[in-house]
Structure formats: C-alpha cells, structure tokens
Amino acid sequence: MSRIGRNPIPIPQGVKVHLRGNEIEVEGPKGRLSFRFHPDMKVSVSESEVKVERPTDRAFHRALHGTTAALIRNMIKGVTEGFTEILEVHGLGYRVSLKGNVLELNLGLSHPVLYRVPEDVKVEVKGNEIHIHGADKQRVGQVAAEIRAFRKPDPYKGKGIRYKGEELRLKPGKAAGKK
C-alpha cells in the first residue's frame, strides 16, 4: 500500500473541505483551490481528516493513490500557509522591478522583458531577489519557471536567473593554446 496515500490527511482549524462527486474543494484563509481526481479513487472527508483509498493493487491505482493524496495535502497546506519560491538575479546591470502587476526584467538584452503576473500569484521584488507567493503549488512553480526561462544561468560566468540555493557548477573557460 502507498505510504503517502495510506496516511490520513489532517484538516487544520479554519479550513473547509467540500467533496462533490470526484471533485474536492479546499477553502482556507489564503484562498480556495479545487481539484478533480480520477474517478477510480475513493476520497472520504470527515470532520478532522481526509482519506484516500484505491480499488485495486494495480500499479496504475497505486500511482494514482499516492499522487491524489499528495495533491490534496498540498492544497490544504496552500490555503493555510501558502507556498513561496525565491529567484535570484545575478549579473552586472541585471535589474528587476515591479510596476503594478507587470514584472520588468533588464537582463542584458536589447530590450526589457515584461512579464504580466497572473492574478492568483503575488510577486515581490527585494533587491536582486524575486519572491513568488501563492496558494497553489503548481502555479507558483510554473510562474517561477517561466521567469527563470527568460535568462537561465550561464554555465561559464554564472549570470542569469536562478532559484535561491541552486548549486551552479561553472565550466572552465577556453584553455590558452600551447606553442
């Protein structure tokens, strides 16, 4: 049995969980999230916990079991605590500023890159760091990946946008020729 799916998911105070058919909706202080799970999975909601069960022990159902439980657990964490991703901008002359809901990135290109921040995600700029907050883990990660894709870290100089704490192995430059 799945070790992740087998454990009941506790529902903290102030969080409401509604189950309609094969759709679960979680509402809390940070927002509301909904998820449509596979019809083979059986989800039951009680006063203090959510349980996910699977019909058979086939590999497909085992995979769905753990995934469904993990997604519901992330939804509950998202509406209570939220998720944060931090990006660092490295490079001489590289700047980031937030103007309304548009992120302006000067990344050494011939033009500034403008990125419209989605409604369900909050972005803050602190020096050379971009803080991305939101209730939905997938959306926060997707926005961070889209921003990082504008200028991935250069493997030779290390310039670009990277996740906070990301280890970057720099390649050696071109060796001088021998005569």
TrEMBL record:
Keywords: Ribonucleoprotein, Ribosomal protein, RNA-binding, rRNA-binding. Residues 11-82, 91-163 form the Large ribosomal subunit protein uL6 alpha-beta domain. InterPro entries: Ribosomal_uL6-like, Ribosomal_uL6-like_a/b-dom_sf, Ribosomal_uL6_a/b-dom, Ribosomal_uL6_bac-type, Ribosomal_uL6_CS. It comes from the Bacteria. GO terms for cellular component: cytosolic large ribosomal subunit. The keyword RNA-binding applies. One of its GO terms (biological process) is cytoplasmic translation. GO terms for molecular function: rRNA binding; structural constituent of ribosome. NCBIfam families: L6_bact (TIGR03654). This protein binds to the 23S rRNA, and is important in its secondary structure. It is located near the subunit interface in the base of the L7/L12 stalk, and near the tRNA binding site of the peptidyltransferase center. Belongs to the universal ribosomal protein uL6 family. HAMAP family: Ribosomal_uL6_B. Part of the 50S ribosomal subunit. This is Large ribosomal subunit protein uL6. The gene is rplF.
